[in-house]
Every structure is written in C-alpha cells, then in structure tokens.
C-alpha cells in the first residue's frame, strides 16, 4: 500500500490517497500505521478519496478513534493534492464540515468551519481542572480551551479533561497563555493521541475563545512547540495559515 508521510509544525501524519487495497477496518489499520516502533509512526492517519467531483477526507487518531476534522492534517493533505493537481485551491469534505484550502508562497491557508461556542463556568462544570473563563469551541472537532499562566499544565490535566463526564464523546484540551493581544502560546492534549508538537484546530479554537473573552483582536499568532500559525477570526469567518511539508513517500505491507 502506498503512503505519504507529512508533517505540519511537527504534528505528523500518514496519508493514504485512494488506497488500492481493500481496507475494511480503518480503525485497526490506523493503530498499526501510527505505531512508531512496529509501523510507520504518526499522530494521525489521513485517508482521502479523490473523486471527480469531490475529495472526501477522514482522520483517525493514533488510538484508532475517528476525528471529525484536523487542522494540520487538512493543510498537509490539501498541499499534497494541490501539488499533484497543479492547483492553488481545493475543497475538502470532512465529517466536521467543508474546508476550503488555498496554496500561496508554499503556505496553506484553510477556511475552517464556522465555530460553535459555549462559554463554560469552569469552577462548577469542571472543578479544579479548569479555569473560570474556559470555553468549549467546536471548529469541526471539539475543543476545551483553558486560559492558564503555564501551558505545560496540559500534561498534568489534559487526559483527565479529555475524558471528563462533561464531554461524553471526549474532547481535545487546549491550554493557552495570552502573551499580548496579537500573540498566544498554546499546548494541546489531542483526543486519542495525547500531547503533540502542534494542533491546527486547537490554534483556531484558542483564537476564537480568546476573541470571545476580548483577550485578542481579530488576528493573532499562535505559537506552539512545533512553530507558529496565523489565525484570523472576525466573528464570521475563521482562517488558519501555516506550513505543511511532505516528508517522504513509500510502500508498506498491509498486515
């Protein structure tokens, strides 16, 4: 089976485009491909079906669970397909909604689905694990955004919040520190994967939550361990711009 290895800010993916083999259980296959010792190794597996009139994309976490969408993964698969088709724009259909992508100067800009926002009373809903100004933001996939002074706390509290009873389908957990009105620092515990170097949808969710609480304007740089993303949100349209890199291609035996 042919695959493409890609990464966006260190968040890495194994991408399958129209896999030629019969894949009956993508969940089990994804767990095997994501294994860093016995497979290829990645944070998520991206499966794209490129048809004449549409491109359907599915995302699978390292534990085999399916995610509705993925910001960094969308940029990576979009860049690969745009390069293959020699186009500067492409539309992806995901479980989380339609994603419009543009390629310019080797950077990919993604128009994310319109976010759904719920401001939470952190003290009552989530106990000591959250903050009073926590925000639940769905940008095609669910995120809990918590504003903290130390983003490294995500390693201590991320897994507990991911599996908190308030989120029956589990959630991604974003710990955000506001540096100034145009700059956020972020670390994310990704649902089904754990802490990753970067999370594109998490950067978008964090920007939206910070905007809701008037901590930022309509544009901000979001810095993560793997690098920076540029997010804009004016209350109507949400855009993410950042790099995406194809690392290598290859073949793996289906087992």
Q: What does the model show?
A:
With 255 residues, the chain is of the alpha+beta class. The protein folds into two domains: 2-112 and 242-251, Diaminopimelate Epimerase, Chain A, domain 1 (Roll), CATH 3.10.310; 116-240, Diaminopimelate Epimerase, Chain A, domain 1, CATH 3.10.310.10. The chain is 20% helix and 43% strand. It contains five helices and 18 strands. Strands 6, 7, 8, 9, 10, 11, 12, 13, 14, 15, 16 and 17 form a twelve-stranded mixed β-sheet that branches. A hairpin with a 4-residue loop joins strand 3 (44-50) and strand 4 (55-61). The longest helix is centred in the first third of the chain and has 15 residues, at 71-85. It is globular, with a radius of gyration of 17 Å. The model has no long low-confidence stretch (mean pLDDT 91).
